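Worked Example 4.2. Consider the chain below.
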Amino acid sequence: MGAGSGEVFAAARIPTTFLARTRAKAQRGLARAESMAKAQSISTYISIGSYDADLEREVADADLIFEAVSENLDLKRGYFERIDAARKPDSIVATVSSGLSIAAMTAGRSESFARNFLGIHFFNPPNVITGCELIPHDGTDPEVTAFVDELLAHKLGREVVKTSDTPAFCGNRVGFKVLNEVALLAEQYGVAYMDALIGPHTGRAMAPLVTIDFVGWDVHKAIVDNLHANTADEAHDDFALPGYMARLIDAGHLGNKTADKGGFFKTVDKDLFVLDPARGDYRPAGEVACEPPDLALHMKREIRFGRYARAMDIFAQATGADADLMRRVILGYIAYGLRRVGEVVEHPRDVDRIMGFGFNWAPPSVLVDTIGARRTVQLLQAAGIEAPRVIIEAAERNRKLFAEPNVDTGRFFFA
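Applying the procedure from the previous section yields the following structure tokens:
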């Protein structure tokens, strides 16, 4: 994330310094940035250094200090103490935290630091994913927020969504509700089955458990633990980390970043193995191969030919256990996302933009429009899920919800 974030600034021709524990690590970050940019010329705008030798000197000259260390509040505070002592009074300090309290990071810092501090949450990889959350805290100067918003949107080409300083902000709160719910269900239904059921045909670039492996189990744990401890909404139980994941994390299983141990999936000598959550071990994919349920196959066929509404007709009309479980997850996503309006973000459009351009998932409003608002209300009622007021109003007024007229909603459906 540090290298990717730095690449975004340098690609905009903003002189950027990469600092890491050692110059060698910073040099590796520069190499990653060059790889992301597919151009060595980006190094023209990047210099490197180490925390011990260069932090105070580099911070003293910086207009924007962008922190991207591990998602640990105490660790971040230690660096902020050094930054506060060295920075210019009007320099902006930002954290790329994926969900920690922005206000809590300013504890013990100067008034100037607090006034010029906010969150800039890029999504990984930031050179590819343009969605970005901007998170001021109550003490952030509104002029600083406005300036950074302009910088992100117009200089860096970000799709900016402003959120409140609540646990995991908007994107991760909504997204990890779904990811962790699927991980919990995998213990009962199996890993391969859940990813086949809630796959790209339900409006996401990657299946949920593949996504967790990509993100990293340690990152997943940090986010859902934070949400489980610090939220008390209707999805509280869905944020409880599955016990089998906790045990495997303790044994060093972190997903793709620990290729030898794996996560939900691992490859050994080019052979794919799938986690058996009940046993805590791996079985050859051939032994647990799970062909997508007929429901999923029928949806994929319609999506392949661009018939998205027809795919969602199948989603709405199908009967049986597969259909009930798919609707439980997808309708839960729609309702949970749109109920965060007024709590985490101001408008339904904010939820839609961060899920669409941050997570690369079909935004809740796109799904509502494709299913039909009235039918969505009926499906929610049948599933025992309270319908958000915004969907009820759309049904009553017979109007669309998705408010991005220049966006082809077909981009969010994958076969």
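The chain has two domains: 2-162, 171-412. The chain has a mean pLDDT of 95. Compare this with Example 4.1 before moving on.
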